[in-house]
What we know:
Blueprint: E1 2-4, E2 16-20, E3 23-27, E4 36-42, E5 49-55, E6 74-81, E7 84-91, E8 95-101, E9 112-116, E10 120-127, E11 134-140, H1 142-145, E12 150-156, E13 168-172, E14 186-190, E15 193-200, E16 207-213, E17 221-226, E18 237-243, E19 249-256, E20 262-271, E21 277-279, E22 288-290, E23 318-319, E24 328-329, E25 336-339, E26 341-342, E27 356-359, E28 365-373, E29 381-387, E30 391-398, E31 404-411, E32 419-420, E33 425-426, E34 431-438, E35 443-449, E36 455-462, E37 472-479, E38 488-498
Parallel strand pairs: 26-37
Antiparallel strand pairs: 1-22, 2-3, 3-4, 4-5, 6-7, 7-8, 8-9, 10-11, 11-12, 12-13, 14-15, 15-16, 16-17, 18-19, 19-20, 20-21, 23-27, 24-25, 25-38, 27-37, 28-34, 28-38, 29-30, 29-37, 30-31, 31-32, 31-33, 34-35, 35-36
Amino acid sequence: MRYTNPVLNADWSDPDVVRVGDDFYLTASSFGRVPGLPLLHSRDLVNWTLIGHALERLEPAGEFTRPRHDCGVWAPSLRYHDERFWIFWGDPDQGIFQINAPEIRGPWSRPHLLKSGKGLIDPCPLWDEDSGEAYLVHAWARSRSGVKNRLTGHRMDLDGRELLDEGKVIVDGDRIPGWFTLEGPKLYKHDGWFWILAPAGGVETGWQGAFRSRGFFGPYEEKVVLEQKDTDVNGPHQGGWVRTPSGQDWFLHFQQKGPYGRVVHLQPMRWGEDGWPVLGDEGAPVAVHDRPDLPPQSEAAPATDDDFPGGRFGRQWQWTANPQPGWATHHSGDGLRLTCVRSADAHDLRRLPNILTQRLPGTPSAVEVDLRLHSEEPGARAGLAVLGDAFSWIGLQRGADGSVHLVHRFAEGVAEQERDAEHPRLAPDGRVRLRIEIGAGARCRFFHDLGDGPQPSGPVFAATPWRWVGALLGLFALAPLGGGHAGAATFSHFRIDHL
């Protein structure tokens, strides 16, 4: 049996992985979206399902009442130690946080700020069974600290709540010819060596490095162990090593793919005669490979479709900031009932915290959802969006005369507000089926169905990412500023089908 990369074809950025018994678990960056720290499960490293999130809200809560799309949770590390799961991550504006739980589904502890400071990113712990000591390594974000291309190491207490020294630079990328933007370290102990697997060279064009030393604080030797070579997998790097029960080694990493974000690849891994890891096909990413030596698992992928039973939405959805009570209301039927939240920023979806999002699929797909606008408030609107540095949406809006119009709007990345992508038209009964066909290169064609079949709307829209985050699909309901409740909109039968 063979598998094909990527094994997660959407924006599961900066993955890390751990095995506990026969189960594999993966987490990824979630940046400013809530809930954060997605938790995925697999038994064969190829088929993954989303089983929850470890972080209910971003902290400090006051910093994330508004969208901060490229901030928040960066590059987490997932570990299992002392019969607990541990996640460490860096918030580039706050510092290094840690949470832990007795079970993967929680309950997870409240975030503990382990090291405060600007630009502290990509932390990874290690509990050394040989010495009984614990360590932490992290990288630096120059945008906040003025420092980059180096890894700092600390001794850490066994509870993961305190660092025991001031820290020391254990790898300085400026001293390695040709290396730059060294980041994303993952720390291991193997065969008597301390190992740091860390990427360099930038997310779009870089490579995966390995470092080894007999002592945690160095000195370290380095080697490039995975790079693009003659493949079409640009910048293959930043991920985690995991070993199967039979002793096979595997490496999960990402590939930066523009508006699709960072998709996840699985590489075979072995230890060469010289003691260094060999990833992929002699250091080049594989496109197709024999599956891991693990029991067969049914084909699976993180959920996308949703009928919103009882008004509840599935695990695949995340808000663009910490949510407020009442944005989505539960009820006795099916369908997502979103409150038309009043906002002075209704003209710019990028500024709104009350957009419910999920990842843009990495393969050509059609997205459909039914929408009904209940609000009688003039200017109230609801719709389906492709959201990034530029955005476009299609949906319904209540006019000043009480009529409902189908509208399709967009904004370029440099634009401060949206404008029409198509002439508005009447939607007599306040209902519509919305459709977006996502083609190659994340080029999006919008459609509407007011009961007379699908009709195209506006020109093709090319989805764009934010700086570090892939484009998102979003559902929203809004109203202009004013007094009182502005009503609601109901979304139903959300579907994503591959084209």
